[in-house]
Amino acid sequence: MTNKLSSSESFLWNYIQENLTDIPNLSIVKLSEDANVSTATIVRTMKKKGYSGYTDFRQQLISKTKNNVQYQNLEKVDHDIKQAIFKNKYEVDNTLSMLNVGSIEDAIQKIKKSSDIYIFARGFSEFIAQEMLVKLQLLGKNCIMSSDPNIIVTLSKRIKREDLVILITLNGETKELVAGAKNAFENGVSTITITTNETGSINQYSEMTLLGFKSQTSYFPDYEVRSRLPLQVISRILLDSYVIRTAKE
């Protein structure tokens, strides 16, 4: 049996991740009603995730909760605030579990061998790009960062083959970033994309994609200000790993 989740199973798994603090008190029937999926979908999802069934998953979750003393101080916190706190923990935990060590190693080599590095980002992702820019420059790399849509599209057409483009995008659909990735890709330039959208349009033009986990919960639903925490985690791991590898060499 393949471990790849179907759309309904992915929806369920995301629902569970968003409501982990409630799961210990939910029967499979109640979870089925709350998530609006069949009990069969729940069982299939759990087996694909490595559990014998929902009961096994629930019991292991209860055991972890009891043994996890570092979060005991949250027991008195309001339920909704606790959910907000754990939302960030889930994003980090899931992002770490999704990271491919081989991809990190490959990305390190790309950074090491590149003549110049171009970092493109828009919106809140610009803060992560700016941090990467400064760190790479401190490490002796010639690095340029841009968040201007016109500059991204124009500059990406002129980048040389021996250079590297790093694109930071939460949804992988920002049109100027997709255009920049396409321009670089068509000119034979190596591209690394840091994103949370496995099916984003930008991925088809990315030589390498470092994928993070994005929570479906947003406390600012009327605005596009979703957390970039997964992207920041990946960028920091990448640069920390780069320092470790280059120091040893």
Automatic annotation (TrEMBL):
One GO BP: carbohydrate derivative metabolic process
HTH rpiR-type domain: residues covered: 1-68
UniProt entry keywords in alphabetical sequence: DNA-binding, Transcription, Transcription regulation
Any GO MF annotation of the entry: DNA-binding transcription factor activity
Pfam families per UniProt: HTH_6 (PF01418), SIS (PF01380)
Keyword presence, Zinc-finger: no
UniProt cross-references to Gene3D superfamilies, sorted A to Z: Glucose-6-phosphate isomerase like protein, domain 1, Winged helix-like DNA-binding domain superfamily/Winged helix DNA-binding domain
Annotated ranges, domain SIS: 107-249
Domain of life: Bacteria
InterPro entries, per database record: Homeodomain-like_sf (IPR009057), HTH_RpiR (IPR000281), RpiR-like (IPR047640), RpiR-like_SIS (IPR035472), SIS_dom (IPR001347), SIS_dom_sf (IPR046348), WH-like_DNA-bd_sf (IPR036388)
TM ranges: none
Protein name listed in UniProt: RpiR family transcriptional regulator
Lineage summary: Bacteria, Bacillati, Bacillota, Bacilli, Lactobacillales
